[in-house]
Amino acid sequence: MERIVVDPKVLAGKPVIKGTRIPVDAILRALAEGLSVDEVLEDYPQLTPEDVRAALIYSAKLVSSEDVFPFVPGKVKKLDKVPG
What we know:
Elements: E1 4-5, E2 16-17, H1 24-32, H2 37-43, H3 49-64
Antiparallel strand pairs: 1-2
Helix pairs in contact: 1-3
């Protein structure tokens, strides 16, 4: 992901489009709110269609690498003491 960078000196380390201070989540939020890619590019003229695509790919990879452990009420076993 050459277009996405994480730098602690830029927006406290949030993932941004390289060379900008535009966070990936701002692009995702705009798309989720119903803006088209063209509208996002109008709002952020320094972006390219490839930048928007990179934000989507980055997010997809991030989410796909998460481990999810569903919580089912009543199915949790309480431990009397900590093992070990």
